[in-house]
Structures are given as C-alpha cells and as structure tokens.
Amino acid sequence: MVSMTTSGTKVIPFSRPYLTPNEIPNVTAVLESDHSHGDGTFTALATQRILELTGAHKALLTTSGTHALDLAARLLDLSPGDEVVVPSFQFSSGATSIVSTGATPVFVDVDLATGNVDPAQVAAGITSKTKAIQVMHYGGVPADMSAIMAIAADAGIPVIEDNAHGLGVKTNLGVLGTIGSMGIQSFHDTKNVHCGEGGALLIKDPATAERAEIVREKGTNRSRFLRGQVDKYTWVDQGSSYLPSEINAAVLDSQLEHFDEIQEKRFAIWNRYRTELSYWALGNDIVLMSPPDFIHAAHVFYLHAPTAEAQQRLLAYLRENGIIGTFHYVPLHSSPAGQKFGRTVGNMANTDSFSSRLVRVPLWTGLTSADVDRILATLESFSV
C-alpha cells in the first residue's frame, strides 16, 4: 500500500524491505517440508553464503543482531564488577547485552568525522575491571581497527565488532566482523540484507565456536548429537534459544544469493546523493557523509546540519514534502537506562554533536530514479 500526503503526493518512506526472487519459493518449500524449525537445509545454505562473504571461521545464525550480541556477551563470561568499553553512539542492544550479564558498559566518545568510537577515548576508558572492547562500524564505515586492536592487545582483552551495518565490507585488516574475536551481523528488515528479524555471530577462535554452539542451543550439546559426535545430547552449559526458524533462514538465503545486486543498487543511490548534493551542501554549511577512503556498505546516507535547530527544520521540511528522513541514536550516556546502568568516561562533545545534527535520508534497494530525483530536488530547495 502506497501512503500519500494530504496533497496527494506519494510518501517516500525512510526504509522499505527489498524482495528478491526466491523468498516465496523458499518459504513455500519449508512450509511443505517436515522441517520448519532451525538448523535445516536453508540454515546451512545461508550460513555457507555468510562464510563465503566474510571469510569467518564460524558463523551461527541467530534470531536477531541483539541476540548475537547477547550470545557474545555470554561467551565472554561477564559478571557483576566487570566492565566493557563501548561507544555511546550506538543502538541500545550493544549496552543491554552487557547489562544482562551484570557487567557495566563504559561509554566513551566517538570520532566526529565518522560516528565510530575514538581509539584514544577507548584507551582512556580501560581499567583493571575491563574485560572487552565493543566497537560499532557505523553505517558500515570501518572503525579504526588497527588502533583498537593494538589497544586490546596491550590490555589482553578481546574485541567484539558490532557490524550490523557493514556486511561484507573489506578492509586491509580483513572483512568487517572478522577482525576482532567475535563479530555480529543483523538481518533486520532495515538492513541491506534481511529476513525480517535475524542475525549472526561470527567467531574467530575454534574453541569459542564449539562453546557458542552449545550456548546457542539452550546450553545443550545438541549440535554435536546431530553431527553424530555423541549418542545423545544433554545440558552442559548456560544458554538460551538463539536459533532462528528455517522460515527466516529461507528468506535470508534468497537475500544473500542476491547480495551483489542489492549492493550495486544501493551504491548507485548513495553515489548520486554524494555527488549531486555537493554544491547545495557547500552553500548551506552542511557536511555530507564522507567515509575515509570511501569504504562503506551503502547502508545509510547521512548529512550533518550546522546546528541542532537546523536538523529539526530540515527533518520537518522533508516530512512536509512527503519524504521521511530521520535522526539516529540518542546517545546512550544521556539515556535514562545508560545513566542507571552505565558509566561515562571523558567529554562526550563529539557524540552529542554528531547525534544532534544528524539527518539520514531514504536509502533502500527499491528506490527508483524518480524517487531519488525528488529527494534531491527537495533537499536542494531547503536553505539553512
């Protein structure tokens, strides 16, 4: 159903899930089979595609990116009194996964140019209680992993990569999500590749991978049983039910099969925004998204208004013209739960500035050239 403004103009939503050719046939095949729970044929196919795309040692599908973060936190054996250094500018799941273990998220500032965590602030946040560093690759733009990994090595602690935005992004250190000890992916329907709700945990260490299978399967060694490695399975560790259904995996498999096509379409839109808005941005003191070396996932396109007031006016102007733009995260250090459960280190000026001036414009695979023309024209008719 197409939404319309009061003047009869089509509303362009901020995001819309993309449908590839095989979702419906795949789901039909699952529903007509005797196996709709997890770890069936489509789970295996989708998992293999993720491994080929990322080069990870092990990939485990989960019900969401949030559950992948929860699974990673469990594998760290965090407990009350422990701390994990995290960027304040990120989705709440990064912090709730830590809080659920009784540990404390320690919020630090970001790099104003990218929204990614500032390595200098990470170093300042480390204490004798620190058990891990969590980074987020905002918009699929790589965080400074060389610096982060060096800090982690000096402290003798692991790095968890929240790579919900950056599936398949290649860097000189490896594919995002495989550089640290563990990485997570999200397949929520706002992501480039989706299955409605879903995620994955990428694991580097074989011993951790074996334990992760157990924690993911309600604390049992059921996976070993299904492979014929034990004659029956039993409860051997802590755990929960992180395994998605075969229906989700069937959708995800089709999406991953068309990954290159999806990315090509998204990059074409991203490149138009970056190129065609340059003159307008310069004349309005607006800063366009500009990833270092232009390495990114075409997951978002954002701009920074000169002030928070200008951000609000621009978002309202887009809405008035039937275009849904949006801000992004409210910094976790300033949120009610962040103040209750976390600890903040240093000056958060960059985080506050990045968040309060951020405007994201529609970027989804099915946007037409006419849609993009209209978005560009609307933006270019706005004056700060």
From TrEMBL:
GO biological process: one example: polysaccharide biosynthetic process
CDD domains linked: AHBA_syn
MF-aspect GO terms: dTDP-4-amino-4,6-dideoxygalactose transaminase activity; pyridoxal phosphate binding
Signal peptide region: none
InterPro entries per UniProt: DegT/StrS_aminotransferase (IPR000653), PyrdxlP-dep_Trfase (IPR015424), PyrdxlP-dep_Trfase_major (IPR015421), PyrdxlP-dep_Trfase_small (IPR015422)
Coiled coil feature spans: none
NCBIfam families: PRK11706.1
Protein name (record): Unannotated protein
